[in-house]
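Hey, I'm writing a tutorial for new members on how sequence and structure tokens pair up, and I'd like a real worked example in the thread rather than a made-up one. If someone can provide the structure for the chain below, I'll link this post from the tutorial.
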Amino acid sequence: MLIPTALEIDELMKKVECGNVITVATIRDYLTKKYKVDFTCPLTTGIFVWIDVRSPQAFSFGLLREQQKKISPKEKRTSLHTGAHLKQTEA
């Protein structure tokens, strides 16, 4: 069993291009193959992904502000109350 480090998870997360999705299972599969082990600990991988996603450096506040300017006030209230993620739309 592999227990990944937070830095390794952070490096993998930074390789994902904006707009693409990577799952914890994908990260675990990649690390399992890289280190030729039976499996990667799902708990520590999930915790480090959670920490990385919520770190201030990982979040682009400028992009969020630009997205908020493009939607109506009603949509802003809806997205804030439902917890829906703002997604950049192409016009």
